[in-house]
Model the fold of this input.
Amino acid sequence: LLLATAAFAVAENAPRPESLIKWRQSAFQVIAWNTARIKGALDGHYDPREVRRAANTLAAVAQSDLPALFTPASATGRGWRDTTARDTAFNDAGKFRAAADEFAREAAQLARLAAGTDQQAVTAQFARVAQTCKSCHQKFRQID
Ligand code: HEC
Done:
């Protein structure tokens, strides 16, 4: 039993590449879901509570340390689907982390503004967040 427990602990410490790819793809799906909620609220009827919830979720996932899910062993392979990460995300890890940090900063600012009542400020900040998605994908993802 002790041996089995120890083996499990080791397996837990080093997640399999397939798990890492699934987790990061899932994280980006949650990111996409909450981005769509904010876009919907800004395009249609502005619902401050909906925007607040989505912005808080986005900020939380953005600051969860996404680069930790991009280990060299997971540079190729399949999670829910084949990874679409570019090798630059692994070879240029410092720049990749900088892009993730920028995303986290802009998402945190969006959450702060969403807590207030200035809809125009939220709209402008949402555009900044969307720009961080696009510029990271252009450098570190095979498709944007
Ligand atoms: C720091 C870089 C970075 C930022 C910022 C970023 N992405 Fe991504 N995104 C990636 C990479 C790399 C992948 C590929 C992951 C994989 O397949 O292993 C990805 C994948 C995705 C996917 C596909 C997930 C799947 O199921 O395969 C979606 C959707 C997505 N991103 C949306 C967004 C949105 C929306 C934002 C901004 C709100 C965003 N991303 C911000 C790097 C980033």
Observations:
- Residues 21, 24-25, 28-29, 31-32, 35, 80-81, 83-85, 89, 96, 99-100, 103, 129, 132-133, 136-137, 140-141 surround heme C (CB under 6 Å).
- The chain has a mean pLDDT of 94.
- The two ends are 48 Å apart (CA to CA).
